[in-house]
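Following the same procedure, backbone shapes were mapped to integers, as reproduced here:
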Amino acid sequence: MKIYLNIIFALAMFGCTSSTMISEDHSNPTNNLLPSHIDESWTSFFSGGDLSQFTFIGDAEWEIIDNYVEAVDGLPKFLVTNSAFRDIELYAEFWTSPNANSGIFVRCQDIHNIAAGTCYEVNIFDQRPDQRYRTGGIVNFAEPMGFQNAANQWNQFLIRIVGNHIEVYLNDELMVDIEDDSFFAGPIAYQWSAGTVRFRNLWFRVL
């Protein structure tokens, strides 16, 4: 009950500030690779500046290099958004080494216990031993509908979650299209667990 109340409070706080966030200036020369659908209705979590919109969970060793943020070693760690969300569309670009283990966690129930059992984990893990939930899938919920190896290149995720409907696109290919109501709302978490992981152009819009 305490976790649920904290999420509701965070959603209320976000509702009070979202109009200010959406009015941010999106003109940034490092974003020239953004798709055309990223317009003034989107807001940036991170686009090459600072990480002030995140809380660091784990032994955080994140380094901003040019227009991306990178993590390479240590214990599992997360960049967790300071606000909680329910219905949202996320855009992210990521680069990983072949041995990397990463992911984007949506509707996290407890930022001190971020896992596939407490969030929807959109996986980035080409070499996952159980390939059912490899890159592009949602761990324990949806196997990816396509097969893509993401290592050693920049990739694009588009994640849309509205009510109990979840869609995941990887490089414009539909990977997940399911309905599930396990988690009501919560923050977003970007993970490092192994290898080299880079994120850039982290954008969102509330639906």
User: Anything to note?
Assistant: Residues 1-10, 12-32 have pLDDT under 50 and may be disordered.
